Amino acid sequence: MKKDAHVIQKYIETELARFGNFSWAYVVLEKKSMVLNFYATNYPQEWVQHYFDNNLQCTDPVVSTALKSVTPFAWNENMKSGNYHHGDDVFEKAAGYNIRQGYTFVLHDYNNNLVTLTLINDGNVAEEMAHIIKFHKGRLNLFLASLHEKYLSLASSVEENKSSPLALFTKRENAVLYWVSLGKTYDETGTILGIKTTTIKFHIANIVKKLGVTNARQAICLGVELQLVKPAD
In Å, how far are 58, 84, 103, 167 from 129, measured between CA atoms? Predict the structure, then answer.
């Protein structure tokens, strides 16, 4: 969808130029798997690459808030990520790219996607940003709906040639996470799956890394909360 991404990028830039010169991000996430379906942004590319390479959408407090919201909301680097403190790390790294506070518009579509449009307040345009949100919140909400309709139209036009988005976990990682989440030990899980305990530990380490947490217990809790754990085949 390279060409379509360019179309979406230009569409957003043209519309937001009516309001001012802001940093922004339009993101489409599949809610059940937290897999990234699409994004367009003018954030620093290095930050974007780091964010998605490390699946930070799983621990980002802005995302966790958006999952439970239907109205737009303001946020800043002091926002917490519910039961998980890992969101503090997200903001700590984002601050290095001058991403500290902003405003996020939310949409939940019929494909079970979480759709967000975020405008970043870099500190130099705080008053201007507040003015825009106060007087144009409705218009920006409608813009997000219009934008997402355009995305869905473009996506459907190439659906037959488009590969399904990759799952967050491999089939084996999912099986390991499933059995461990049911309380099975590593040894028991290895016996069930017919693999060595060291291999179980290897898969758990990968799961921990993909979820952006620090240990297996946190990975299991987060996997269950985000409904990423699926019955093993």
Answer: 27, 29, 9, 36
